[in-house]
Amino acid sequence: MTLKEFLKSKYFFIQLLLAAFLAIAILWLALKFLDIYTLHSRTIEVPDLERLDKEDAQTVLDDNNLNYNIRDSIYDADREKGTVAAQDPAAGNEVKRGRTIYLTTVAELPEMVTMPELTDLSLRQAIAILDNHGLKVGELEYVSNIAKNAVIEQKYKDGAIEPETKLEKGTPIDLVLGDGLSAEKVPVPFVVGLDRHEAMMKINRASLNLGEEIYLDDDTVNVKVYEQEPSALEEVPQIEMGRTVDLYYRSVEEFDFESYLEEIQMVDVPLLYGKTPEEARELIRESSLTVGSEVFENDVSEEDARVYEQDPDYFDELQIKRGSEINIWYRALEDFDEEEEEEL
């Protein structure tokens, strides 16, 4: 039989079909094996491991055929030592079996930091430096001294603490401050909607102390301030320096703070000092507030008048209810003393 006759024969076509079928079968089996081996289209939802201790997290991951690797550890005084602080990928993501989940845990041993020198600094400077060093502001104590809000002494556990002393990160440092030899009261800042750290910093910067803390939900970590006492919603209360502000927290996962804050509608108090009547009114309108009474001392004309007093007064970070009135007092430029003129 010639080659031409063989290629036209029935036997050749049968062998060709068998070879094609065998090739297709081998290819299908290879793809099926690869599909099974790589678990194609089969994924596992990453479980939520945060706040679990390392042993429990490992058990959960083993049950889900996942691996883990501790990538980092951080010190956090507000979380239980040895628990999971963060994970990557995050909970809810779909991954293949055998995927490694990277964990960040809360360190068992605290990080040590150095105590800075705060004496003679202003309260604001001291707060910023403590925060940069990983320390917290403890109790603010005011004593009779001409240096208002200047640090007279830095203390730890009722005793003086020297600069360069090693402390655990997050340690609260008490500050003794001058009261300026006056019984001046300070406005209570509005801290609703802030997290615990932000609220505490704002309260301390206002020369006040953090008082009682009440958690209204089971969550004590992912929270924001829901209420404060004294409240600053209807009017701005003023209390003695060093007094306390109590805070009530709610979980950000259980409460809609965005809608709550829109409903409250608090705005910043503008600084009007030295402004002309026209400038002051414009600033008030831009701040979504209302012009209240306007007093022109000694019948000063609008052209010569400048703001020298406002109520509520301007304080850094002070907020009041949108639409509230601001009362203004004007006097002539020549009636400002030298020190007041330098501030204009």
Major sheet description: 4 strands, mixed
Q: Looking at the structure, what is the overall shape?
A: elongated
Question: CA-to-CA gap between the ends?
Answer: 116 Å
CATH architecture of the largest domain: 2-Layer Sandwich
> Spans with pLDDT under 50 lasting ≥5 residues?
none
Radius of gyration: 34 Å
As laid out across the biggest beta sheet, the strand order is 7-11-8-9
- How many β-strands, per DSSP? 21
CATH class of the largest domain: Alpha Beta
- The proportion of residues forming helix, as a percent range, comes to 25-40%
CATH fold-level assignment of the largest domain: Trypsin Inhibitor V, Chain A
The domain tally reads: 3
Mean pLDDT: 88
Number of DSSP helical runs: 8
Look at the helices and sheets and give the structural class: alpha+beta
Beta fraction: 25-35%
SSE order, one letter for each helix or strand: HHEHEEEEEHEEEEEEHEEEEHEHEEEEH
